[in-house]
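Lab channel / #folding
Pinned by the channel admin:
"Please post every new chain as: sequence first, then the structure tokens as a reply. Keep commentary short and put observations after the output so the thread stays searchable."

First post following the new format, from NK:
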Amino acid sequence: MKKLVLFLSLLLLPNGVLAERSIIVSFSNATLTVSEDGQSVMQTPVVLPRGNFYPVPVSGTVTSAVMGPRWTPTPRMIATGKYRNSYGPYEAGNAMGHCKVSISFDITHRILRYVRIHGNAQPEDLGRNLSSGCIRTPDALCEMLTSLARPGDRVHFVP
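Reply from TO:
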């Protein structure tokens, strides 16, 4: 009976609900592309990490996508005197910006276990290698990404 209910539910879902969605971050052209069933839905320039964090293609899975994330600076950042202990959603100084998409890598990455794609990118920084490991996008585009990303979506980082 459960299989029949699931089957009927799937028939009633609108087109595209079961579409295969993936997010591709290209390090060669500093862009993030969201595709659904092989068609580009969204593309944006991004701010990339400093250093060679992704020397080979690596894949992962979206674990969460949240609007208005909180942010806690590292103890080393707080020690500089530039940051407080924590920042609330949409609060000035929150380095996450308006949204955050968390990704867990499929394999144990030699440098990072996970990565975040988050807002707070400044227009003049797009296409540059300035972050400490995360991928930054403009807040408005990150909000769109957060509305598109679902836990379980595939993410591919390509050199």
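NK: The chain has one domain: 20-158.
TO: also worth noting, The domain at 20-158 is CATH 2.40.440.10 (L,D-transpeptidase catalytic domain-like).
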